[in-house]
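To: structure subgroup
Subject: Chain for Friday's discussion

All,

I'm putting the inputs and outputs inline so they're searchable in the archive.
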Amino acid sequence: MSAPLVPSPLDYVGRRRFSFYPPIRAAGPNEWFLRNGDWSEIQIVNAENGKRIWVPRQYVCGVSGSGGTQLVVELTKELDYREGTVSPLVKQVIEMPRPPKSSPRKFKKRRRRAPATVVDIRVDTSKSRRVRTLAKIGLSAIAIFVFSVVAALIGRL
C-alpha cells in the first residue's frame, strides 16, 4: 500500500506575494510571485522589476505566514544570483590548521642560568676490569679450540 503524496509547501503560496529567508543575494528586492514549476525547479518572478529566476526545489524548505498578507519561504541554504542562475553561496574561507597542542602557549622571559657544575665520572672500576679479563681468557680459549679442530681436520686429509 503506497502512502499519500505530501503536498509541496509551495502549494500554499498560490498567487500571493512572498519573500525568501534568507534572501537571495544580488537578485534585487526580496518580494516575489510564484510563476510555475515542475518537480525539480520553480520559477519565481520579482514583484518590482519582473526578473524571472529558476530555483531548484532542493533549496526550498517550507512556507510560514507572518500573521499578515506576506508569506515567507524558507531556504535551506543562502543562495546567490549570478549571470541568470541561482547557486548556493560559498563563503571562501581557508581554515588555518590548529597547533599540535590545543592549549595556548604562554611566552615567558627566559632567565640565563649558570652553567652546570662538572662532576668527574669514573667509567673504569676494578669489577669491570675483572670481567674484561675473564672475557678475554674465554674468547682466546674458544679460538684455540676452533684452531685445533680445523688443524686436525686438515691433517686427516
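Points worth raising on Friday:
The helical segments are 126-156.
The chain has a mean pLDDT of 82.

D.
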